[in-house]
Amino acid sequence: MEHIEKLREFLKSNPTDSFLQHALALEYSKIGDDSTARELFEKILTNEPTYIGSYYHLAKLLERIGDNESAIQWYEKGMEAAKKAGDNHALRELTSAYEELLN
Q: For the whole prediction, is pTM greater than 0.85?
């Protein structure tokens, strides 16, 4: 909880910082608060669809809670965003996770 409180404090002075929001979402995910983590990841991707790393983590969270249909959609959106950004590393990670889920 200490990390969560620190991140929330940082966000007070910079509430639109996607990096801080992403870090906070990961912390919530670690403690099993999937609902809050999901909300944060979705907020990031709504406000900044080029924040590629959040696609992977959101889709993995959705997979973990059994919402494979939504996970597939987020993987697909992430793959498209990674292609547009020319981020081949993220594209490979997203594609690999996507294909693993489909099989």
A: yes
